[in-house]
């Protein structure tokens, strides 16, 4: 996958989810860390 800045990232998992909240520690891959964090306003 190519990011906006041109960086190419890959993942060795069979199934992945893309992070849309930008809270993931493994961005651009979702690590479900959004579940543990409070929502910012």
UniProtKB/TrEMBL annotation:
UniProt-recorded Gene Ontology molecular function terms: 2 iron, 2 sulfur cluster binding; metal ion binding
Gene Ontology cellular component terms for the protein in this record: cytoplasm
Alphabetic keyword roster: 2Fe-2S, Iron, Iron-sulfur, Metal-binding
Location of the Iron-binding zinc finger CDGSH type domain: 1-40
One Pfam family linked to the record: zf-CDGSH
Protein name per UniProt: Iron-binding zinc finger CDGSH type domain-containing protein
């Amino acid at each position: 996958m190519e990011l906006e800045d041109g960086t190419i990232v890959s993942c060795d998992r069979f199934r992945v989810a893309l992070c849309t909240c930008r809270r993931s520690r493994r961005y651009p891959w979702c690590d479900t860390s959004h579940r543990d964090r409070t929502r910012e306003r």
